[in-house]
Amino acid sequence: MAQPHPDDELNPTVTEGYKVGQAKTVQELANLDKEDESLQRWKASLGIGASGSGGGAKKVVLKTLFLTSPTRQQGDVVLDLTQKPDELARLKKEPITIKEGVDYSVGISFTVEGEIVSGLRYIQVVKRAGITVDRGEHMLGSYGPQDQPYIKIFASEESPSGMLARSGSYNVRSRVIDDDGAVWLDVEWGFKLGKEW
Question: pTM higher than 0.90 for the full model?
Fold first, then answer.
């Protein structure tokens, strides 16, 4: 896990006065307030059982980054984040095509292993010709360990349109980071705009 550079535009924003709480293991959380039935049901919904199913080191495993749009007949555009580093590097060299002037959403799927991860955020910076044209930061939240992937889809946005927007390609850098500053994903990919998907 890489540590972010202090002046990196991919660092998460900091809320003044916010302090990260003391980390607790899944077992410690499972044993809290055992007599409170509704709290136990809530903890079970988070994957925190009386058996304390956690254990091992905290790990976030990114599965996919995807673009979804009601205008795309062929389904989502999916980037497989489980590939080897040299295959991931191709994502930047071989840009995907996004149809100009349509609404689309970016989504991400991931699993959590070992212990609870808190304050997970997705940060994305889009550049064209080396100049930042967009930056987005989305709070994913806190998650307990589970085998089934969590899926998060961000708010819809409209892709640029026009001949100027279609000329050239865009470079995107996506990062997933938690409250402890652990970087779970730092990947570059590219897209270009076209008249069709």
Answer: no
